[in-house]
Amino acid sequence: MTQDRDRLDRIEASLDRQVAVNAELRATAEALLTVVNVHQQNFERLAVELNADRQQAAADRQQVAIDRQAWQAEIGRIWEYLLQQGGNGRSGEKGRGE
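The structure corresponding to this sequence follows.
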């Protein structure tokens, strides 16, 4: 009977160690899950920010195109005015050296 009791004590001790190891593994897994969840939230937030930045960049490019057309039109109007003024912006006066 002593052998049986010793064997049962060893099995019980082994099970206790296994329960402790399992508890540590579970705690580690839960900590890792928390870290993964934080990274997932950060990833999702960054994805939203990136999408907003892309949309803003597209809007900025459209505004730049509109502004460029407006400036080109203004430069064209100024050019035409200068040509009508004799090329130098002064009425009836030719450029120097002419």
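Helices lie at 2-84.
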